[in-house]
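Q: I have 359 residues here and want to know how they pack in 3D. Can you give me a structure?
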Amino acid sequence: KETVDFNADTAEAPMRHALEGTGWSVGTVNVTTKRTWQCTEKNALSILRATQNIHGGDLIFDCPNRLVHLVTFGGNDSGALFAYRKNLKSIERVVDTRSLVTRLYAYGKDGMTFASINDGKEYVEDFTYTGEVRISTLDCSNFTNPYQMLEYTEMRLAEYCKPRVSYVLSAMDLSALTGYEHEAWALGDIVTVDDKDLNLSVKTRVVRRQYNLQEPWKTVLELSTTLRELGDSSAQWDKAADVLASTDVIDRQEVKDMVPFNHLRNSRADSGMNYWTNSGFEVDAENGVSGTASFKAEGVLGMTKSLAQTVYPASRRSYTFSAQIASEDLQKGPSGQVGIEVTFEYEDGTTETRFIDLF
């Protein structure tokens, strides 16, 4: 699919673009957010995921009717109750704080920020769950409107600032039994989980199920406070994903999921020296590696030349640095160095410097 620009459009416009020629149609869309952005995704499934990510809402695939819905809330409060000695056999509670963020930076197209409309700050903060500063950067390169980008960043932070709490249950489906029709539930519905041993009584949502038709007491459910896409273990779900993804050989969204976000801004010299503190380098517009340009420096004996940039990465256990240099005819002096010097600043104010030798 071709690159398409959307100007203050609702989610229906990119969804129609995504599903064109797939045999699927846009179903119910009650998400009302309007966004100005550029869609560069190449296949239907990637475009749908990008639309959901930018506009919000629950993405639901109606396989029998070949419809895709994007709704603010994809389910009902079913009234179903899962409890021990009734229909609950086992339960596991998982609290995931690995991706929790309290300070979120955002950068739009050509490095645009919303600082001018956000008291000079390029970030938003939310310490509802913890007072710890946990920083991440949001890639908003599709955005050209700072007001919409600020709204979108606040929406994302409201999700990221809380831990993801999920439950995996082994339970019995009682809804087929006479007198228990009210215990029916479906994907996306709110159900109540009651566990006296864990002192737990919580309303949460069914986000995934593995339904056993022959032995319904072995049904496995995943419940979560966060719903991204409704998933079913049935072959229909897998087939739907395959059909939507097959419109292109490579799924760009899946590639994005595998490739770490590049925290360096203008790392390929596409925007000249923007975002860099430069001492002795210049832009070579003809010899790029991953892009059309690169940075170049002519060595001078006894002189240090450098490019520097400060980044604010997310809280992770490890990071990867990668670079490529053209070393033809390169000669070093007696104490010469060619490489990357990295200075880490920790929360307590201490610093650590490491040098990565590239030649």
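Q: Anything worth noting?
A: The radius of gyration is 25 Å. Confidence is low (pLDDT under 50) at residues 226-261.
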